[in-house]
Amino acid sequence: MSQIIQQLEAKRAAARLGGGQKRIDTQHSKGKLSARERIELLFDEGSFEEWDMFVEHGCEDFGMGDQRVPGDGVVTGYGTINGRPMFVFSQDFTVFGGSLSAAHAKKILKVMEKAVQVGGPVIGLNDSGGARIQEGVASLAGYADVFLQNALASGVVPQISMVMGPCAGGAVYSPAMTDFIFMVKDTSYMFVTGPDVVKTVTHETVTQEQLGGAVTHSAKSGVSDAAFENDVEALLQLRRFMDFLPLSNKEKPPVIACNDPADREDFSLDTLVPDNANKPYDMKELITKVVDEGDFFEVADLFARNIITGFARMEGQTVGIVANQPMVLAGCLDIDSSRKAARFVRFCDCFNIPIVTFVDVPGFLPGTAQEYGGIIKHGAKLLFAYAEATVPKVTVITRKAYGGAYDVMSSKHIRGDVNFAWPTAEIAVMGAKGAVEIIFRQDIGDPKKIAERTKEYEDRFANPFRAANLGFIDDVIMPHATRGRICRSLQMLKNKDQKNPWKKHDNIPL
Amino acid sequence: MFKKILIANRGEIACRVIKTCRKMGIKTVAVYSDADRSALHVEMADEAVHIGESPTAKSYLVIDRIVEACKQTGAEAVHPGYGFLSENKAFQEALAKNNIVFIGPDAEAIEAMGDKIASKKLAQKAGVSTVPGYNDIIRDVAHAKEIAGKIGYPVMMKASAGGGGKGMRIAHSESEVQEGFERAMSEAKSSFGDDRMFIEKYVDQPRHIEIQIIADRHGNTLYVGERECSIQRRHQKVIEEAPSPFLDEKTRKAMGEQAVALARAVNYVSAGTVEFIVDGNRNFYFLEMNTRLQVEHPVTELVTGLDLVELMIRVANKEKLPITQADIKLKGWALEARVYAEDPYRSFLPSTGRLVRYLPPAENKNVRVDTGVYEGGEISVFYDPMIAKLCTYGADRAEATMHMRNALDSYYVRGVSHNIPFLASLLRKKRFEEGRLTTNFIAEEYPEGFSAKDLPAKDPTLLLAIAALVHAAYQRRAAGISGQIAGHGRQVPETWTVVEGGRHHHVWVAPPSADAAGIASGTAKIGDTKVHIMTGWTFGDPLLKADVVVNNGKSEHFVVQVDRRNVGYRLSNAGAQMDVSVYTAREAELAKLMPVKVPPDMSRFLLSPMPGLLVSLAVKEGQDVKAGETLAIVEAMKMENVLKAERDGTVKKISEKAGASLAVDQVILEFA
Q1: How far is CA B525 from CA B163, B471, B495, B549, B588, in A?
Q2: Mutant choice from B482, B484, B497, B607 vs A, greatest count of A C-beta within 10 A
Q3: Which of B373, B639, B641 to probe by mutation at the A interface, max A CB count within 10 Å?
Q4: Statement to judge: residues B86 and B115 lie in one domain
Q5: Which of A183, A223, A186 is nearest to A208 (CA)?
Q6: How far is B475 from B492, CA to CA, in rounded Å?
Q7: Count of the separate structural domains present in chain A
Q8: pLDDT mean by block of 10 residues, chain B; 672 residues
Q9: What CATH number is given to the structural domain containing A286?
């Protein structure tokens, strides 16, 4: 017996070292933590239960028969974040460069399947050189098995990818199918083909960082939802992030004790919207002054900055925030902002997270770049996402709500549950000047008449009252009372039960 | 008594005058420009009249509009505050013509004191001590040298119409007179359109001490103690106090009596201030007389218990002063610090914009805040960027200083840059504590300007303890989240590592006791130091006010500003900021492995802050620019954004032409 125990201990010790201390030191020298160190930071101390520590690959080709490392390049299992169970796979770059073998894939599938059965989020910590080339198509099959499981788990449990090293080629498609991708600056990159291939095919010279680094994907492509400074910050932020999410689609979002009074008034909001309609203001000020304790976890903060998405809490419970940002492109909707917000809204709807929308939108961005890029279909994504969402939806129009963009931004017409407007709201087909030039085309040569007509149009539409007359706005509220009114609305909507017609699935304009 | 008074001013002074009017049961009328539509003084007044566009020349300085506003509202008198029209003869005449009372001195007195040379002659005649010098216009350099020789070096050459340091030169020798005189003269010409110069003795170790006087129309002229305003930055007062730590009773009396003599000589009524320069041997010399209420009048009010605005109103109403010289006693000590929206780290460049958060310290018998702004208000580009005058009162100078430090610590301003770190640093200078002031105090104490280095290198123990206590509270709460596996909750540790500037400090936090009032109250231990903190702070509060006991010593009050930043905290105290991360032991160990990243230096480039159209460029290649100068204008969705230079430099290369479409972070130009 004692011999067996000794053997077990020796095996465990060997497994824990992965590719060996030397390779762990190399990992450290690159500014990266080892697969197990990452799990230690992610989970509550001592809560990680490891599975399949002794799994080895079954490949005999190309000398692989002599090279077996217990665990085969990925550490899997479950643990807790603030006592709530989550599943994890953490690729170990020190073992065969974290490459994916059939056995490696099976380990990942095991945690994913269990996560779906019990209802727990899956967190992937990606750090892999790609396919295990020695295994050939068996490795590709492993990827595909993971992709399939990603698709099946989607909408059942939250799936989060933290890319903490290389992630290239086919490997990118597993994170790509998860709900959120986060990256670490300077040490992670994602691309379908690397700089060498790019050079051969398109003659572009580009570094890994430029092509697919954390900043590139967080700011330019929108593939990544955040770029963190280093592994430690990334994992602590991930802990903070997970505290906002429910464990599965069967649960309500979690609640944290809250001391921030629900009826807290903030009179500085009464002066947030400037007198001049063309002057920007920072919508983030409104968000941080309305939510609990000003604590806001922004998602995709560097991408499509004309719309803000992220999580916060109201009376302790998670809400998803979507808000136009007048500071960037006047807060208009364009291809990127529509895509960004649509995906966020759908995530919230999947996981029962109420959506609070702050609207100041002058319309869709005009131009050939937008039309050729398919703004029609991309804009429709956001419209579709809001329309199909059955979670509680509370909307506050702070200033402009013009044209089709008004309809899109969680309007009453697409089942906004409670729609408020500030007294500064202007709900109209377009700005007064543009409208008058169309309606009174014959008067264009007469500036005096045009001015009169503009005034007339402004009086009629540059306020929330016309929309309120028609019941499109439930109430006109004082800015300082915004937090209280939203909190009450969310409480009222707590047991909202709304179902869409049965369907296999919808056909959102992808 | 007047039934209604119009205040021809804005900002804190308008609010301050309204307060006294309210106390006296007088209705008030505010005037405002476009930019001040929702300013505090408009809110506070019983009535408000719009008087024009935002620039002062189109609103607050337009005499006709203010007279019109008086007629429209039936205001019987006008309080001018300071600045603007407070010393303007035409304004007084216009008011007089309409039978509206001006709350201040008569036009003749204002005029007599308005000219530096004329007022000095008047002072000499009234027996007031003046700086040895030549009281007539200097003809040319030769004349200047001759006079300087007679007075004896060092001498000061000064523009007659001068102010703000313009047209002013010190000369220690004949050759320096040669060098400086004509330059000063041409400066005076270009600054004031008046190149008349005079010369006087340069006073060594100079202190700026002024006497407050008040006079009625019944022959009573009193001096109401002094204020010392030696702490100045480029001739702008920064900190004022009453009394002066330098004067003895004999000098105070002599200065007071001379001030009264001068006031009598010009038949002065209302409140006024006679400014003196005092040398290291308590020789004092008349500088000038300010014929209005001074910015720093609150310190006098705090040590005398008088309301100077009330006295001004009563005098204007032709009443007799209710007090005599014998009634005026200075009691205790008062300090005033001027809180400005300016960036002390960027050579005090004015900062404008929205006061996103504004929490002034609470007012009480030791703290007075004269302010004209509120949270959500705007510091406008059109006016003086003063946020408030923060005044404190104590039984003695040390106590007033202590209150000032605490008040500055709890002054929470976000959205605009402010000079609170600078003020906090000043208040902790040993030389300030010792009262060894001169008008060169700031220049000498901050020879290279103000920087983060100037903030007191304090023992960070208290801040570290607070960081650990706050973090532990947050972690304990997070560990109570809903949806946990029963019986497998997180054990929140008691030992934490607070990392600040790369240094790791181990802090032990005692488990919370049931009787502790406040979630962050408790005991922390750092090395051998035990810190016990009692605080009512709760999650999200920007201010943590605590009673702190270190190693069973005396309980001390301590205020820290706490800003949560993602997974760390920014703590501010004594003007200094400390960014900390609080880690568990294992987190700290692994954090040590993280590379130290040096951010790429993008400061040489002007980047477009947003996608948009480059409307115009204000500079050319090779051009030298000063910090704050406009470089380019970028328009996005019809909104114009002005991009300004953050520091002095030379434009090396312009990358984009006007009319170009810009992506976010696109380089517009490059500095050398």
Answers
A1: 55, 15, 9, 12, 18
A2: B482
A3: B639
A4: no
A5: A186
A6: 7
A7: 3
A8: 95 96 96 94 96 92 94 95 91 93 93 84 90 81 88 84 71 87 81 80 90 95 96 91 95 95 94 94 91 95 96 96 94 96 83 92 96 92 91 97 95 94 93 94 88 73 92 94 90 93 92 75 90 91 93 90 91 89 95 86 78 84 83 73 81 87 82 86
A9: 3.90.226.10
Q: Which of B481, B540, B586 sits opposite A84 (nearest CB)?
A: B481
B599 touches chain A (CB under 8 A): no
Give me the helix-helix angle, A231-242 and A35-42, nearest 10°: 40
Q: How far is CA B226 from CA A378, B255, B272, B303, B332, in A?
A: 71, 9, 12, 10, 13
Residue A503 counted as domain residue = no
Q: Is residue A251 one of the residues assigned to a domain? A: no
Residue among B275, B288, B336, B342 flagged as catalytic? B288
Does A268 contact B at CB distance below 8 Å? yes
User: How far away is chain B from the Cα of A57, in angstroms, using its nearest Cα?
Assistant: 30
Asked if B602 is an interface residue toward chain A (Cβ–Cβ < 8 A), one would say no
Residues 1-40 (B) with a CB less than 8 A from some CB of A: 37-38
Report yes or no: B639 at the A interface, CB cutoff 8 Å. Answer: yes
Instruction: Please indicate whether residue B448 is annotated as part of the active site.
Output: no
| Domain containing residue B32 | 4-103
Interface of A with B in 218-247 (CB under 8 A): 229-233, 236-237, 240, 243, 246-247
Nearest CA in chain B to A361: B637
Do both A358 and A469 map to the same domain? yes
Q: pLDDT tens, A142-178?
A: 999 999 999 999 999 999 999 999 999 889 999 999 9
Helix axes A447-461, A432-439, angle to 10 degrees: 120
If we measure between CA atoms, which residue out of A366, A378, A426, A433 comes closest to residue A402?
A426
Q: Do A281 and B354 touch (CB under 8 A)?
A: yes
| HSE-CB of B52 using CA atoms within 13 angstroms | 16
Instruction: Report which residue type is found at A45.
Output: E
User: CA-nearest residue of chain A to B358?
Assistant: A268
Based on the fold, state whether residues B319 and B375 are members of the same structural domain: no
CATH number of the domain encompassing residue B619: 2.40.50.100
Selection from B394, B401, B462 nearest residue B429 by Cα: B401
Residues B639 and B579 in one domain: no
SS (H, E, C) B73-134: HCCCEEECCCCCCCCCHHHHHHHHHCCCEECCCCHHHHHHHHCHHHHHHHHHHCCCCECCEE
Q: Nearest CA of chain B to the CA of A3: how many Å?
A: 32
- What is the token pair recorded at B82? 């300071």
Q: Which two tokens stand for residue A273?
A: 């919207």
Q: Do B484 and A268 touch (CB under 8 A)?
A: no
Distances (CA, A) of B655 to B610, B633, B646: 16, 14, 18
The answer for B 488-547 residues in CB contact with A (under 8 A) is 488-491, 493, 538-540
Same domain, A407 and A389: yes
What's B36's domain CATH number?
3.40.50.20
The residue written with tokens 């008011």 in the block is: B95
- Which run of H or E residues covers position B238? strand B236-242
Is ipTM strictly over 0.85? yes
The residues near A4 (Cβ < 8 Å, ≥ 6 apart) are none
User: Is there a contact between A246 and A254 (Cβ–Cβ < 8 Å)?
Assistant: yes
**Tokens 């208290």, residue?**
B462
CA distance B26 to B557: 40
Query: How many Å lie between the alpha carbon of A441 and the closest alpha carbon of chain B?
Result: 23
Q: How far is CA B46 from CA B73, B75, B205, B377, in A?
A: 11, 12, 48, 20
DSSP character at residue B595: P
Q: DSSP code of B452?
A: G
